[in-house]
Structure formats: structure tokens, C-alpha cells
Amino acid sequence: MSKLLYKAPANSLYKTVELEDGEKGEIRIFTHLLGEDVKRHWGDSDLEIWSDLAPEHFRPMLALLLEKFLTGHEDAHERFEKLAKEAGVPLEKQSWT
What we know:
- The chain has 3 helices and 4 strands.
- The radius of gyration is 18 Å and the shape is elongated.
- The chain has helices spanning 36-42, 58-70, 76-87, and strands at residues 2-7, 14-21, 27-34, 46-53.
- The model has no long low-confidence stretch (mean pLDDT 94).
- A 4-stranded antiparallel β-sheet has the order 1-2-3-4.
- The protein is an alpha+beta fold and 97 residues long.
- It has 2 domains: 2-53, no CATH class; 58-87, no CATH class.
């Protein structure tokens, strides 16, 4: 899996940010920068930076991301269900009265 999260406008510094599957099951966020500004700051015009999230840390990261995405929204439950559907994740829906 590789998902482009951001690409800078064509008239600015070249920058892309992607989410990728890592080789060991981790999720990687990968940034690629090109240009003279990069060279002035880092000494080379081509810079690649990545951070890996190991599978054993998926749960706390997911909980925090959901909290940030859902907090303050009256339709939080519906937004949660929509995300699950988009991801192809089945939910066990229950209710009690």
C-alpha cells in the first residue's frame, strides 16, 4: 500500500508525503523533499525522511487519531461507522433499551 497524503504545488519546493506499508508490517510515513532550499538547509538537494509505526503500537495510535477525528462532532458515531465502512472493516453493532 502506498497512499499519497500531500504533494506541494508545482511552483514551490518539491515535497511529497506518503503512507506506506513497511517491510515488517509497520506503517511508514515517508517525506521526500527536493530543491535548493533543501540543499541550503541539509547540504544536499534530495532529502528523504521516514518514521515507522510498529504493529504493537497501532492500537494507541488509532485510539488517539479517532479521538481527534471524532471529538466535538454530534455525528461522531456515524462518522466512526463511515470510516469503518470505507476501510472495509466490519463492525458488530449492538443496542440496548
